[in-house]
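Blinded run. Sample ID left blank on purpose so nobody reads anything into the name before looking at the predicted structure. Input follows.
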Amino acid sequence: MTADGLPEGSVGRLHDAGRVFARYYLRSAFRIRVHGRERVPATGPLLVIANHSSMIEPQLIFGMLPRRSAFLVKAEMFGGIVGRFLLAIGQIPLKRGEIDRKPLLTAVGVLKDGGVVGIFPEGTRGTGDVGAAERGAAWLVRASGATVLPVATRGTLKPADGRRRFRPRWTSSWASRSRRRSDPGRPGSTRAPKSCAVSSRRS
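Blinded prediction complete.
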């Protein structure tokens, strides 16, 4: 892992520039409100767990976090120049519907290096209520002992009729963080199990 808490091969300055861009470029389309940003610990391993109803939340959360972060992102996004950019800013490709231990172990490495990892436990976009969750997030907490920061977002899901009001409000509430210590007495707790495979449902 690199000294700045991002996966190997990441470019720190490019990552920082991407965060600034993500923080401001959607302000013309949304009225952005973030509650609880001060609850993000300044240092130490942190796992951000958020709901997911559109392609917008990952960008906004990435930009609003006051620390560098590596998100688990579906592997389909890593093609061409976009894929090279995502790798350069430290994002982690994850194959959905397959047994894919490498990204989970990479994420654990980031956490053990004192970094921040973001994950959307639904494994795909949903209605925003996290009606179903995959097991990868729980395993990351157990394997790393990271602090958990739950993040709830509202405002990006399009209405059923497809019509969105002008500059809708996007609200993100960051809950009180909690510490989950891993159990050192359980053998094999640092190995990513097959059950961590991500859902094959399409976004």
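Unblinding after everyone has recorded impressions. Residues 125-133, 181-190, 193-203 have pLDDT under 50 and may be disordered.
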